[in-house]
Write a structure and sequence with these properties.
The complex is a heterodimer of chains A (243) and B (297).
Chain A lengths: L1 H16 L2 H11 L3 H6 L5 H29 L1 H6 L2 H5 L5 H34 L6 H28 L3 H24 L17 H5 L4 H25 L5
Helix pairs in contact in A: 1-4, 1-7, 4-7, 4-8, 4-9, 7-8, 7-11, 8-9, 8-11
Chain B lengths: L1 E13 L2 E11 L3 E5 L6 H9 L6 E6 L2 E2 L4 H4 L3 E4 L11 H11 L6 H9 L13 H13 L5 E5 L7 H16 L3 E6 L2 H7 L2 E6 L2 E7 H5 L3 E8 L2 H7 L5 E6 L4 E7 L3 H9 L3 E6 L4 H9 L4
Parallel strand pairs in B: 3-8, 3-9, 6-7, 7-8
Antiparallel strand pairs in B: 1-2, 1-4, 4-5, 9-10, 11-13, 11-14, 12-13
Classes of the chains: A mainly alpha (243), B alpha/beta (297).
Chain lengths: 243, 297
C-alpha cells in the first residue's frame, strides 16, 4: 500500500512539473552530457513521464516491493518455521504457492492500475489534453509486465531457497544487475550491447510510443514471468523442507 | 495395522546428522515415545512422517498413506505440534487459531475453547509479545482443536511450567482413552515415562532400543538400599549370599540387588541385622536410558 501511495504521489508530481518550457530548459542543461541519454528528448507528456517516472522511480520502487514481498510469501516463512503450521493442514504445497503467487501478481496489477488512474486524473487536472492516454496505459502495462517478470525471478528464488538471506540475495541481485545493465546500455552506444543481457530493455518506452515491435517485448516478458513462476511452484512442491 | 509406520527410513544430512535405517510402527490407541538428546534425529524422523521431507531410502506411512506422496491427505486427521514454535508475527493468538481452523475448514470451535480454558490461556495478545510458554499453549490448541485421530508432538511440554506439564499429561491420557494414536518426542524422562506405552531410544540417528514402559515399571529385579547401625555389621553382611551393587562402609550402607523370587531370602537375611533404614531404589526410564548413553556422560 505504501509503495502504491508513494508511486501515485510521484506520478502526480511528475505530471504537475511538466511544462514544455521547463523541459526545454532541462534539455539545454543536460545537452552533451551522458544524462541527456537517460532523460531523452521527447516533447510530449507521455515521453516525459516515461523517462522521468518509469525510467527511475517507477522501476526501482516496485522492484523493491516485489523483492521484499516475494521473500516474505515463501522463503521467510520456511526460514522462520511458520510454514510448518500451514503445511500441517490439509493444504497442498501447490495451493500454498499458487495462492501466494496470485497475491503477488494481484498486488502488482493493483499497484499499476492505481498509478495509471492517478496519473490520468492528475494530468487532467494539471494539464488537460496534454496526455496521450492510450500510450500512457500501454507504457504502464509495459512496466507492469517488466515487474511481472522481475517478480517471477523473486518468487522462484523464494521457492528455491530455505533461507531468507539466500532468497533475498538472488532476488535482489539479478534484477539490480539487470537495471544497471540497462543504464549502462543507455549511456553510450559502445556499451549498447549490454541491452541484450537485461530484461529491463524489453520495457522499451520508445518502442511503445512509436508502436513498433513492443508486443513482442511484452510477450517475452510474460513468458519469462510465467516460466519462472512455474519453476518456483514445481521446485517448492518437490523440495525437502526443514520444518 | 500400524497407524504410523516407518520403514527403513534413511536421511543423511552429513556429519553423522540425520536418521539411519530406522523402522517402527505405532499401533492404534498407542502412545509411542521418542527419547533422545538434541540432535539425535527425533525431529528429522517426524519431518518425514509429516511429509515435509523426502526420504533418501525407505518409506513412512500414516494410515497406510505414503507421507511424501499424500502429505495433504494425511494432515486431515492429524495434529502436529512443531518442536520449534514460529508463528507469523503480525497477528494475535486468537486470530492465528481461527486462521488455522479456517485452513482446516473447521467450524466447531468447542474443543479449541475447552483447551484454551484448560490451559488457562489468554489468546487475545499479540503473538510477537507472547512468552515461550504461551506460544506453546497456542501450538497445543492448534494441534488438538480439530480432534485428530493421530497426534504428532515434538517436545510438547517445552516451555510449560510444571503445573501445566502435569495438565498436559492428563490431556494426553484423555486423548489416549478416546483411542488416539500419539507419537511424541521428548528429552524429559518423566513425561515420557508417565504417558508412553512404548519408548524408542534414539542415538545418533539410530533406534538403539524399543522398550515397553511396563517392563520398566514392573521390573522383577529390585534394588534396595539398606543401612545398618554399626560398621561391624557391614563386614558381616557382605559375606552373605546376596548381590551387592554398592558397599559404603563409612556411611554403613549397602545396595543390594535381587530378583522378586528371592524376596523371602532377602528379608530373612536382613532380619539378623540391626537395620536403621531400608528403601527401594526405583528403576526409572532414566536409568534405562543412561545404560545406553552411559559411556558418554
Amino acid at each position: 500500500m505504501i509503495f502504491t501511495f508513494a508511486l501515485s504521489a510521484f506520478v502526480t508530481i511528475v505530471t504537475g512539473v511538466f511544462t514544455p518550457d521547463k523541459l526545454n530548459g532541462i534539455e539545454n542543461i543536460a545537452k552533451n552530457t551522458p544524462i541527456s541519454a537517460i532523460i531523452g528528448s521527447n516533447n510530449s507528456l507521455v515521453g516525459f513521464i516515461s523517462n522521468a517516472f518509469f525510467g527511475m522511480m517507477g522501476s526501482i520502487l516496485p522492484m523493491i516491493y516485489v523483492i521484499i514481498i516475494a521473500n516474505k510469501l515463501i522463503a521467510s516463512q520456511v526460514d522462520k518455521g511458520s510454514m510448518a503450521y500451514i503445511l500441517s493442514t490439509p493444504i497442498k504445497r501447490n495451493q500454498v504457492t499458487i495462492t501466494q503467487s496470485v497475491y503477488l501478481i494481484g498486488s502488482l496489477i493493483f499497484m499499476f492500475a492505481t498509478i495509471t488512474t492517478v496519473g490520468i486524473i492528475a494530468s487532467k487536472i494539471f494539464q488537460p489534453d496534454a496526455l496521450d492516454i492510450k500510450t500512457f496505459i500501454l507504457v504502464n502495462i509495459g512496466c507492469l509486465l517488466l515487474h511481472f517478470a522481475t517478480s517471477g525471478i523473486a518468487f522462484a528464488s523464494s521457492c528455491i531457497f530455505n533461507l531468507s538471506k539466500n532468497s533475498l540475495a538472488v532476488a535482489s541481485g539479478i534484477p539490480i544487475t539487470f537495471f544497471i545493465f540497462k543504464l549502462v546500455a543507455e549511456l553510450s552506444s559502445d556499451l549498447e550491447f549490454f541491452k541484450y543481457f537485461t530484461i529491463n530493455t524489453l520495457f522499451d518506452t520508445k518502442a511503445i510510443m512509436a508502436r513498433d515491435g513492443y508486443l513482442t517485448n511484452f510477450a517475452i516478458l510474460i513468458t519469462i514471468g510465467i516460466v519462472l513462476y512455474l519453476i518456483g511452484i514445481k521446485v517448492f512442491k518437490e523440495k525437502d523442507l526443514p520444518l | 495395522m500400524s497407524v504410523i509406520r516407518i520403514q527403513n527410513l534413511t536421511k543423511d544430512y552429513g556429519n553423522n546428522k540425520g536418521v539411519f535405517d530406522i523402522s517402527f510402527g505405532v499401533e492404534k490407541g498407542e502412545i509411542f515415545g521418542f527419547l533422545g538428546p538434541n540432535g539425535a534425529g527425533k525431529t528429522t524422523a517426524i519431518r518425514h512422517v509429516l511429509g515435509f521431507s523426502r526420504p533418501q531410502k525407505g518409506k513412512t506411512f500414516v494410515n497406510d498413506l505414503n507421507s511424501w506422496e499424500h502429505s495433504h491427505q494425511i494432515q486431515k486427521d492429524l495434529g502436529y505440534l512443531p518442536g520449534e514454535i514460529a508463528f507469523p508475527n503480525d497477528m494475535t493468538g486468537i486470530q492465528f487459531i481461527h486462521m488455522m481452523a479456517d485452513m482446516r475448514d473447521l467450524k466447531d470451535m468447542s474443543k479449541a475453547n475447552a483447551l484454551i480454558e484448560m490451559l488457562e490461556l489468554d489468546p487475545s495478545g499479540d503473538l510477537k509479545r507472547m512468552s515461550k510458554g504461551m506460544k506453546q499453549k497456542i501450538g497445543i490448541v492448534c494441534a488438538f482443536m480439530h480432534d485428530p485421530k493421530v497426534l504428532i508432538l515434538d517436545e510438547p511440554t517445552s516451555g510449560l511450567d510444571p503445573l501445566m506439564q502435569r495438565k498436559f499429561i492428563e490431556l494426553i491420557k484423555e486423548e489416549k482413552k478416546s483411542g488416539k494414536t500419539i507419537l511424541m518426542s521428548s528429552h524429559m524422562f518423566q513425561e515420557i515415562e508417565n504417558t508412553c506405552d512404548r519408548i524408542a531410544i534414539v542415538k545418533n540417528g539410530k533406534i538403539i532400543s524399543i522398550v515397553n514402559s511396563k517392563e520398566i515399571k514392573n521390573r522383577e529385579q529390585k534394588q534396595f538400599e539398606v543401612g545398618v547401625t554399626n560398621k561391624d555389621d557391614i563386614d558381616k553382611i557382605i559375606k552373605e549370599d546376596l548381590i551387592f551393587t554398592e558397599i559404603d562402609k563409612d556411611k554403613s550402607r549397602v545396595k543390594i540387588h535381587f530378583d522378586d523370587k528371592d524376596t523371602n531370602k532377602f528379608i530373612k537375611i536382613l532380619s539378623n541385622y540391626d537395620i536403621t533404614y531400608f528403601k527401594e531404589i526405583k528403576f526409572t526410564l532414566e536409568d534405562y536410558f543412561m545404560h545406553f548413553y552411559g559411556g558418554e556422560k
